[in-house]
Design a protein that fits this description.
Shape: elongated
Number of strands: 2
Structural class: mainly alpha
Number of helices: 16
Strand content: under 5%
Radius of gyration: 24 Å
Distance between the termini: 18 Å
Largest sheet: 2 strands, antiparallel
Order of helices and strands: HHEEHHHHHHHHHHHHHH
Length: 302
Amino acid sequence: MKKQKNKLAGLQKRKAVSGYLFVAPFIIGFLLFMVRPLVHSLYMSFSEVELGAGNFVSHFRGIFNYNNAFRVDPDFNRLLTEEISRMAVNSLAIMVFSFFVALILNQKFKGRALVRAVFFLPVILSSGVMLGLETDNSLMANLQTSVETAAQGVNITDALKEILRTAGVGVRAYEKVFEVIDNIYDVAISSGIQIIIFLSGLQTISSSMYEAADIEGCTKWESLWKITFPMVSSLFLVNWIYTIVDFCMRSDNAVIEKIQNTMMKNMNYGFASAMSWVYFLIVIAIVGVTSLIISRRVYYYE
C-alpha cells in the first residue's frame, strides 16, 4: 500500500511539474512585458497626462478620472451596463450552443470530419485579414438584402414577436431570446474553440459507461444528465472563462471602442486608463464570482 501511495504521489508531482513547465512561457512573458505597462497604466488612471516632446508628463490627480467616468461622462455607465448584459446573454448562448453542437459532432455519421471542420472554420477565418473582411463584407450585405427581397417583406421573427406581444407573454424574457436568435451568426462564429474543447471531453468518456446505463434501462436523456454532463462539467468552467475573456476583447465592444476613442482621438490617456481599469476589475469580479459558483457544481474524476 505504501509503495502504491508513493507511486501515486510521484505521478501527481510529475503532472504538477509538467503543468508548471507548460505555463512557464506565459508567466515569464507576463513578468517581463506586462507587469510594467500595467503598473504604469494604473498610475496614469490617477493622473492627468500631458503629451510632451517625445514623452508623457503625469500630474497626480487622485480619483478625478474615476469620478469623471461614473458621475460626469454621460455614456460610460450606460455602455458598461449594456455590454455586461450583452456579455451575460451571449456567453450563456455560446455555452449552450457549443455544448449541443459538440454532442451532435460526437455522434458517428458519414462526413463527420468535414462537418467538424466547418464548425471550426470560423476560428480560422476570425483572425488577421479575414476578420476585417468579415466586419465589412459587402458580399454578405448584398446577400442579406437579396434574401429579404426574395422573402417579399415576410419576416418570421418579427411576426412571432407580434404574436407573443399580443398574447401578453413576458416582454423582457422573449426579447432576450430573440436578441440571441438575431445574433445567431455571431454566436456560431464565436463557438469554435468551445466546441473543440467540449468535443475533446466527450471523446474521453468510455463507451462502457453508456452500455452499462443502457443495460440498467437508462434513457438517452437520463444518460445525458447522469453521465455526459457530470463527466464534462469541468470543461464548462474552462469554456465559461474563455468565453467571457474573448467577448471582452471583441472589436465590436462599445466600452472598448469608447476607451480607444478617448485615448486615440481625444488624447486623454488618464481618463482612458481609468475606464480601462474599471472595466477590467468588473470583468475580473464577474469571472471570479461565476467561476466560484460553477466550480462548486463541477465533478472531478480520476
